[in-house]
Write the structure tokens for this entry.
Amino acid sequence: MKDIPNPHPLKSPEEVTRFQDSLLAWYDQYQRDLPWRSHPSLYKTVISEFMLQQTRVSTVLPYFENWLTKFPDFHKLAQATEEGVMKTWEGLGYYSRARNLHKLAKIATTWKTPPATLKDWKELPGVGPYIAAAVTSISLDKPNAVCDGNLVRVLTRIFSIEKEYKDGATAQKKLQPLAQSLIDADRPGDYNQAMMELGATVCHRQSPLCLTCPVINFCESGWAGDAESFPRIQKKKNRKKSIQRYWVECKSELLLFTDLHSKNKLSGIYELPQEVPTGFKHDAEAVENMGIRKRTIGNVDYEEEILRISDFTSEVEEFEEGYLWADKEKMKEITLSGPHRKWIEEILEEGG
Ligand code: SF4
């Protein structure tokens, strides 16, 4: 690996074996008790890896338990309605993961045996290099190394890699061969989970616990005391975007909208509408500013100004597809995006 300073302890195969042994001995003793690790199965691994993408373990735990109760296997998930799947996923964000899991479950019910190669897994809906490596190593014992943000942090610190990467995804791609060169082929699933566990519980972004780290003897930046200066990834500024949302009530109902036909990841997830429906008439003076709420999606920081329309008429009996009058008392039954559920609940609590 041309990025690795020479000499480094892990240049020799014997030292790589010692590194793997130290890591796995630590993992065997200290791994967290996580529900997808007890009585593991391919299904549990797939669900947990989909849920854990860009999401913390503590957030995933209640969702995972609930999901397994509702959809205990690929067959039950395949038979579920899309609405039921989205409702169960509600609040976890990145909703395309739920849609892809649903599609994957339908495909899985046709398998005689599950696919065994990275290439075959990467052709399945929502499965990228990380999930393919995680699933094939954990459930099928294939020596495929994962390389996500945790691994980037651990590897760049162990090897004091000075190179600055354009973004996290580029770093993961460039460091994949290095990750692969260290994998323990006898216990690939445990090795991958151990590296992830190390990144999550010891090699923290800030204040890594180097003094108690099981692989300190192999870690250049741990010894040098400059671990926090790695990884080196160019900082990007988020874009800012301002939009308006309408708060429209009629008797005990609140107007919501979802764009069922767009490729938007929030298709099927209800929010306060950004536009009033066709045929909807209101007086500009009957609009009251209810304040600005903020959220971030990907690399865009949104400012959403909520405007209450208190006086309106409609020229049509029914609004076009996507609009829904939702009973304010039964808001829990509607699949809402996380931020909009929070804002709506707050506004209703304050008395609407
Ligand atoms: S010694 Fe420190 S920097 Fe190196 S892997 Fe361990 S926790 Fe991370």
About this structure: Residues 13-30 form the longest helix (18 residues).
